[in-house]
Amino acid sequence: MSDGAKQLRLIVEVEDFDAAVAFFRDTLGLTQEAAFSGDGDERVMILEAGRATLELANPAHHRYIDQVEVGRPVAPRFRLAFEVSDATARTTEAAAAGAEVVAAPTETPWRSLNARLDAPGDLHITLFQELDQ
Fold first, then answer.
1. How far apart are CA 15 and CA 28, in angstroms?
2. Which domain of life is it from (predicted)?
3. What is the pTM of this model?
4. Do 37 and 29 meet the contact criterion of CB atoms below 8 Å apart?
5. Pick from 81, 71, 72: which is nearest to 50 by CA?
6. Could you tell me which residues come within 8 angstroms of residue 28 by beta carbon, excluding any fewer than 6 positions away?
7. pLDDT tens-digit map of 66-89
8. How confident is the prediction for the chain on average, in pLDDT?
9. First vs last Cα of the chain: how many Å apart?
10. How far apart are CA 45 and CA 4, in angstroms?
11. What is the pLDDT of residue 124?
12. Which residue, of 3, 62, 100, 109, has the greatest Cβ tally within 10 A?
């Protein structure tokens, strides 16, 4: 493949569109790239989240990360992770905006501070802060 993929985009169907937009755009600070509406109540918003990566993990690693960050298996097959500059403050803000804290910020063996939340839109997310940067 001479020309690799230019963008990774995850499309999520959310029942409460306004709550999901408020959480991801207004609370987590993702930048609105575009928004469109159509017939009836059809709406979509594309949010920029900085650099995107695709992390592939086998089941053993998936279980290990759950154990380190939460202490028990909790994550579904898909989980979103957002790097933030202050995981503790962002976790507090996220909880105030409607996310359920699954695990408070915890320092990991690889020197990041990671929190787990169930966010609007039925998404399981990690907020992480790199401590050595």
1. 19
2. Bacteria
3. 0.88
4. no
5. 81
6. 82, 84, 90, 94
7. 999 999 999 999 999 999 999 999
8. 93
9. 33
10. 25
11. 96
12. 62
Check residue 70 and report its DSSP letter. Answer: T
Task: Indicate the length of the chain as a whole number.
Answer: 133
The candidate with the shortest Cα–Cα distance to 101, out of 112, 93, 88, 91, is 91
Q: Pick from 9, 11, 45, 16: which is nearest to 121 by CA?
A: 16
CB 45 within 8 A of CB 21: yes
* CATH number, span 17-130: 3.10.180.10
Span 113-119, mean pLDDT? 97
Q: Residue 102, SS3?
A: strand
pLDDT in the model for residue 4: 79
pLDDT score of 94 more than 70: yes
Domain boundaries, the chain: 17-130
- 76: phi then psi, degrees, rounded to nearest 5: -70, -175
Alpha-carbon separation of residue 15 from 10, 44, 92, 106, 107 (angstroms): 16, 12, 24, 30, 33
Tokens in use for 52? 């995107």
